[in-house]
Amino acid sequence: MRRYNDTYYTDKVLLKGYVYYEDKEPVKGAIVILEQLFRRDRSCKCNKDEEAVYSTYTITNCYGEFCFFIYDRTKYYKIKIFDNQYSYNTHHNCNIDLE
To answer: Would you call 13 helix, strand, or coil by DSSP?
Structure first.
C-alpha cells in the first residue's frame, strides 16, 4: 500500500451531491448510479476507450440529496442520474452539484 502526504490511497471518501431541475426544484426519488471507469487498453491515454463498471446506486431524498462512499481514490468514476418523475415525452434537464 502506497502513501502520499501521510494519506493512504485506500481511505474512503464521502461523495455528497444535490440533484435539481433548472428552476432549482430538487429532484425527489431519482436513481443515482455510480460507475467506476476502466481503460480497456492501458497503453492508450485517451478517454475514448473506457469501460464503465457498475459500483453502486442510491436514491435521492426529498431535498434531492444523495451520497456515496468511494473506497479507492485512485480510480475515476462516472455518475448517472435517472429521473422517472416525468413522462418520456417531456423534456426536463437535471443539474448536479457535488460537495
So the answer is: strand
